Amino acid sequence: MKPINFSSFYPDFYVERLENKCIKCKICIKECTYEVHTWDEKKKILKEDHSKCVGCHRCEAMCPTNAIIIKRHPSQFREHHLWNPYFIKNIYKQADKGGVLLSSTGCDLPLKIYFDHLVIDACQVTNPPIDPLREPMELRTYIGSKPEKLEVEKTETGYKLKKALPPLIKLEMPIIFAGMSYGAISLHIHQGLARAAKELGILYNTGEGGLHSSLYEYKDHTIVQCASGRFGVNVDYLNAGVAIEIKIGQGAKPGIGGHLPGEKVNEEISKTRMIPLGTDALSPAPHHDIYSIEDLRGLIYALKEATEYKKPVFVKVAAVNNIAAIASGIVRAGADAVVIDGIRGGTGAAPTMFRQYVGIPIELAISAVDKRLREEGIRHKTTLIASGGIRCSADVVKAIALGADVVAIGTPLLIAVGCTLCQRCYTGKCPWGIATNNPELIKRLPPEVVYEKVYNLMNAWRSEIKEMLGAMGLNSIESLRSNRDKLRAIGLTKEEMEILEVKHAGE
Amino acid sequence: MSVILNVENWSYTKVNQYLREKILEGETEFELHGVNGHRYLFAGIKQKIKAKILGVPGLDLGCFMSGPEIYVYGNVQDACGNTMEEGKIVVYGMAGDVIGYSMRGGKIFIKGDVGYRVGIHMKAYQDKHPVIIIGGKTGDFLGEYMAGGTIIVLGLLSQHPEKPITGKFLGTGMHGGVIYIRGELDPFFLGKNLKISPINEEDLTYLKTILTEYCADMDENLESIINDRFSKITPVSHRPYGNLYAY
Fold first, then answer.
1. Contacts with B10 from chain A: Cβ below 8 Å
2. pLDDT digits (tens, 9 = 90+) for A453-468
3. CATH number for the domain running over A161-504
4. Which of A99, A230, A303 has the CB atom closest to B245's CB atom?
5. Considering only the top CATH level, what class is A6-98?
6. pLDDT for A17-49, tens place per residue?
7. For chain A, where do the domains classified as CATH 3.30.70.20 start and end?
8. Could you report the predicted ipTM of this complex, rounded to two decimals?
9. Which residues of B are less than 8 Å from A240 in CB distance?
10. Which of A263, B114, B171, B206 is the most exposed place for a label (fewest CB within 10 A)?
11. Distance of alpha carbon A478 from alpha carbon A498, whole angstroms
12. Closest CA–CA distance from residue B214 to any residue of chain A (Å)
């Protein structure tokens, strides 16, 4: 008997072709990598298979006569609040294939977005706002461990510090690019991001897929990542950036490893990851040399020794239940920066159950960690980098007021270069040329375009952050850090406000 | 002339700093005395130097290194050869857990027993082919996630004569490379998706070459080892998790 695939019966999307506008140019066939559009030679018409459409809108955007509209498929199941189509279709899919459900990007559930329950303060009458167009506004931030106090001694020529400062990295604005590996995204994206980071005076992050030879020139703006699979990690790589990030976990999939399937490991990726062509690149869930805070200290100092204490070492973890205690341990283990990635953090591929249900929101995590480190008197020893669900410059401002020094962004960068959040990065067929390494597809997004779009976005956010700071009467981003008084809550419970350390609006 | 150094009262940072300075000055041979738990010795060194270590080095001996030859007259602690790329570590004693974690090239020879998760995530790349030879017995999870290279377990000299030659879950998640075990191996100890086969001519030639080097270093008799039976363990598939997901 022919196998029945229940999951193919009910498409998510509906491809509407406006016959009066369609000129049968067949661009849609060329643009769609999921083979939705086909040409019927006999009848001389274009046909569409709705069940294959992922809703990426590429054909719609590229159609020269605007003849295509991608809609949600109008076919409906009988209403059931518990058994909505999402769960029904997932069960069909698993019953058909018997595997773990995969998704991409971050958690898409309607969990409470704390950023949207926080409002920002502004000066009125009693203190004047500052206009960043006419007055200096300091966005410069330093990443790294800061000393408890500075001791200065007089020399014949002037003054100097008694003890050398630990390595610090200067950022011209409090935003860095989150780790996204070459393999998960195209080389063109890496090249564009690296160039943008250089122009903006900030950092991009290699992710765990190694560093392509074309990117060594951006070394002053590179964070190299060392994850459990150690792909592409050797001493030259460790020295190739300004900082090393130990990746313990990520917000989209706390507690599990990564997996780049063999079919994606082409020649360039094989060279960059230093693994043979076509083999699976498996990152184990834990670093097997790290089973405790003491072991983490072991790896942090192994990296510091190997790079002669010239590079700050970051530790990236997912925001989970006991994040405050974990972060405290990480700081005590010697991390110069702690990167905390919330449940909304994006991914190229994660099991759906992890993406949706594991971890906690970044707003709560960052506030809890900042509070804990202050209470323990070790807040200055580290830089807190928050990521996972930052959508706009106001989110950046709110994250910093909640205790972060710097934020890391990933998804906004991809949206800036055309991503429509169809959430199918794991297929490697990204029609927008983002989450793919197909040589034909990556041509759709050249590095110059990536650079320009990302630079524009960051330029816009930079202006907005300055405006918001000015409105609050602050002239430096450092005065905003952990400054909860600049925030007020709307519609949060007492407990939530306690964790966030913010007062309710009107208080 | 080798640089002879007693590091008994030195911190590991000071030892490494000193070694790096001397290596830059062109020194190629070193002898470290009084090593007692010093961590990260020779971390990230790229030059092809030779070193003798007398005592017990601590965590991560030779981590990220790419060139040195290190001979340890004593035991070594965990994670020796962590992510090493090239070079050689010879240990005339026992070794702890996660030896050769993610090593991409070079050789690690251990005379005695080793702990858990040895050779985890070893990988080969282009002309690089990492090798770990264990003279004694091993703990659980030997060659876990192994993606390339060779591990050989001889079981000649062990603190635990009563125990089997390897621990349980051998080669769990292995998707490349080869593990050779001297003697027969009960499949009970094996991880999933692996197969045991007898060695062929090609294997024997390879074993002869690499064990000649091992026996010369360890002063063992090659004849008596090579004439024994060996079991060869390889993954059934290079894509052990290919069907894990429902798209």
1. none
2. 999 999 999 999 999 9
3. 3.20.20.70
4. A99
5. alpha beta
6. 999 999 999 999 999 999 999 999 999 999 999
7. 6-98
8. 0.94
9. none
10. A263
11. 23
12. 26
